Amino acid sequence: MEIDPLIFRLSIFILSIFVGYYVVWSVTPSLHTPLMSVTNAISSVIIVGAIIAGLSGNSETVFNTSSIFGFLAIALAAINIFGGFLVTQRMLAMYKKKKKDK
Amino acid sequence: MISANLSAIFYLVSGVLFILALRGLSSPETSRQGNLFGISGMVIAITVTFLSTGNFSTGFIFVLIFILAGGSIGAFIAYRIPMTAMPELVAGFHSLVGLAAVFVAISAFLNPEAFNLGMPGNIKLGSLIEMSIGAAVGAVTFSGSVIAFLKLQGIMSGSPITFKGQHPLNAIILVSIIILIYLLCSTQSSNLFWILLAVSFLIGFLLIIPIGGADMPVVISMLNSYSGWAAAGIGFTLENTALIITGALVGSSGAILSYIMCKGMNRSFFNVILGGFGATDETSVEKNKEQRPVKSGNADDAAFLMKNASSVIIVPGYGMAVAQAQHALREMVDTLKKNDIKVSYAIHPVAGRMPGHMNVLLAEANVPYDEVFELEEINNDFANADVAFVIGANDVTNPVAKTDPQSPIYGMPVLDVEKCKSVLFVKRSLSPGYAGIDNDLFYKENTLMLFADAKKMTEDITKNL
Asked: Is the terminal CB of chain A with fewer CB neighbours within 10 Å at N or C?
């Protein structure tokens, strides 16, 4: 008997939860705010679904109800991707060590 | 057009890059590289999606336009936002992830053929279950984050909004969501899909309104977690590995942060979620209030105390963020250091309105991160320090958490500020903090209250040093 592909996806999902669990516990508490903004940015990888939705129109018309929702989702996710990564970059650039010569 | 197998491998690569992005945050040195891993993961995921659809017609142009439009808004916000507004920003961003998940689910529901999920009215059962869970969680994330955003921004009052029958109502709505998903999957009715979305928006709203301002660290972390689960739900629908991995990562990350925040307040997760904390009866507070003597001083006294100290510990809190006092504080510390006074910072896990809020503000003011310590690292040092400078913090320093089992904050880990030789407490008035209880620290023999705006007081002290 074949195994349903869903089981494989479920395995990836469960293992990723464990990976996430151990990786996030090792994040230093002083970087918890950048952690939130970067997780925000990466969860916007949902844009891949939005792109498929946006391209779902046929050759005659680009816009139908379904693809319009796709385009809106693309814009929302893009705000998050650019905003999330850039603001994280901006924050991380501020974390500096003590200067030795002082 | 590339094969489905090849694109699945690339999605896996981008999932791994996202893991490395989080891994980088284990120390500030590796964090910037981590962020670059995250960006590369995103670029790979988007490129592969384009290549796998193989559609570079007019639709593709529009996709690019929307990416650029959203991207420039995002970039604009990212550069303009002041660091003190970070909690609002993160809450706002969560709402966008939630809404994007809802839109993708709607699109997949209306046009399942585009996603290989079957025909309208006859969507594969498994996909429909995943889709409706993703959409429901996404909708909760959206409306919940909007409320959190409004509360943090001050557009909506930060105090908890409670009414009779609130919890039974929420319970009924949650059960009805499960029933709706079941009915939706057995009938494929589009009306039920819209009702499910409406009810999910409603419950997100109802879940967050009873939670007060200082519990926001838990709320933001929780919504962070939800946005991950929503993404994972959609990932299952689209059979996309990158999305499943990311959803799981973000989901567990948010859950861990909520746990850390709850532990920092010694409260259970359910206690926070059920809300209403800090909405104490005015009468009971009034009744217990006795007039006790308080020593208050001015910037001159504070400067004198600090000048004669050999070590000072700074305890910042949300009040510092409100007054935007972090730069003034750093200048004060610079002056202290010139006089060979040892200065360190003590951060309570729930100081501020989101996890790590104080650390970001201090970093913004060019405070080196190796001078900033967490509660466990520094709590023993208070006994040896000469001066504790409490700026904008309150409940997290209240010794009552250690002494009075009747107190609502009993058992909460607090900073042992009272063990210092003297305590300087910058505050506008004697009003109680978020928990609605009086701080015993105000009335201690060795406490000097500095009644003023945090920023102005800090600047005045610097002048007097």
From this structure: N
With vertex at residue B192, the alpha carbon angle to CA B186 and CA B194, rounded to the nearest 5 degrees, is 140
Q: Chain A residues with CB inside 8 Å of B19's CB? A: 16, 19-20, 23
Q: Is the pTM of this model over 0.80?
A: yes
Q: How far is CA B340 from the centre of its chain?
A: 37
Looking up tokens 């409260």 gives: B267
Identify which of A27, A29, A53 has the shortest CB distance to residue B22.
Answer: A27
Nearest to A74 among B70, B75, B363 (CB): B70
Query: For B294-350, what is each residue's pLDDT tens digit?
Result: 888 888 888 888 888 889 999 999 889 888 899 999 999 999 998 889 999 999 988
The ipTM of this complex is 0.93
d(CA B458, CA B462): 6
- Name the DSSP class of B370: G
B285 vs B288: CA distance, rounded Å: 5
What CA–CA distance (Å, rounded) separates B331 from B365? 9
User: Of B165 and B461, which is predicted with more confidence?
Assistant: B461
